[in-house]
Design goal:
With 259 residues, the chain is mainly beta. It folds into 2 domains: 16-29 and 40-148, no CATH class; 152-257, Sandwich (Immunoglobulin-like). The chain has 3 helices and 19 strands. The chain has helices spanning 16-35, 140-148, 246-253; strands at residues 44-49, 52-55, 58-61, 64-68, 71-75, 78-81, 88-97, 102-104, 110-112, 115-124, 138-139, 152-155, 162-172, 177-186, 195-200, 211-217, 220-226, 231-237, 255-257. The chain has a 4-stranded mixed β-sheet with strand order 5-4-1-11. Strands 12-13-14-19 form a 4-stranded antiparallel β-sheet. It has a 4-stranded antiparallel β-sheet with strand order 15-18-17-16.
């Protein structure tokens, strides 16, 4: 970061430009730190707090901290009437001055010098270009997850012959391990050797090699095939083809490292 050198002796004349140089250096340093978490000037990130509640027609924003345009701002507790139809809420920086910072310059002009900049949610009928709606602001964790591509989960799009009993979700951990969760129902009667496509995994969730997971459902034995192209099929098989270590094999192959 930029540094205002103060080690020289002989009577250093301090000017406003010197203070501006120090101020810009600090802002630049904070931007550098926050950029490692995926925070840029073009997005608004909620760092802490700032939860929204609505009671008896009044919306309240809790205190916290937010990054707006790369600037870290304190968010004081503030309230406003609930938005009406056609009104929107967005983040902005509210500017006021501390009266104790009113200074008389050598020119006898009086200027406010203690600028207080806080984050607030503004309600209006239009969101200005470049501003972020309250609901579109990411949390710090969400920004980090996007930046580092970690801790993801997606609800998979299923083939037409599949009904969802519980959302069928793929999870990817910080080290790229993919696992599944959910409950499905086929709407076609299964027969021995009959294969049914379940879903197609998106890029980033596919294994490095073809895999098979064996499991039991409704008293039948099934083989789930997970291909390198993302295709996922379930095939009903006879009990005689299931390995004796069924439970272990199912546990072993239910998770894999994505490529």
């Amino acid at each position: 970061m930029n540094n205002f050198k103060t080690t020289n002796i002989g009577g250093l004349p301090i000017k406003l430009n010197d203070l501006r140089f120090i101020n810009n250096g600090l802002k630049e340093a904070f931007k550098g730190v926050m950029s490692s978490y995926g925070i840029t000037d073009s997005i608004t990130i909620v760092l802490n707090g700032c939860e929204k509640t609505s009671v008896s027609g009044t919306t309240t924003i809790a205190s916290g901290f937010v990054s707006i345009g790369g600037e870290i701002c304190y968010v004081p507790l503030h309230s406003y009437p609930d938005p009406a139809v056609g009104e929107f809420e967005y983040w902005d920086i509210d500017l006021t001055f501390d009266p104790s910072g009113s200074k008389v310059f050598q020119s006898t002009d009086i200027f406010d010098t203690y600028e207080i900049r806080v984050g607030k949610v503004i309600k209006d009928t239009v969101i200005p270009v470049g501003y972020t709606a309250y609901d579109d602001a990411q949390s710090l964790f969400e920004a980090m997850r996007t930046k580092l591509n970690i801790g993801e989960s997606i609800d998979l799009i299923l083939a037409p012959n599949i009904y969802v009993q519980q959302p069928f979700t793929a999870f990817k951990s910080i080290d790229g391990i993919v696992s599944f969760e959910g409950a499905l129902t086929l709407n076609t009667t299964g027969v021995v050797g009959g294969a049914f496509q379940v879903t197609t995994l998106p890029v980033g969730y596919r294994p490095a090699y073809d895999m098979h997971t064996y499991f039991t459902a409704n008293g039948e034995q099934w083989d789930m095939y997970i291909g390198t192209t993302g295709n996922v099929y379930c095939t009903i098989v006879t009990a005689s083809t299931i390995p004796s270590n069924l439970e272990y094999l199912c546990h072993l192959l239910s998770s894999y490292r994505a490529v």
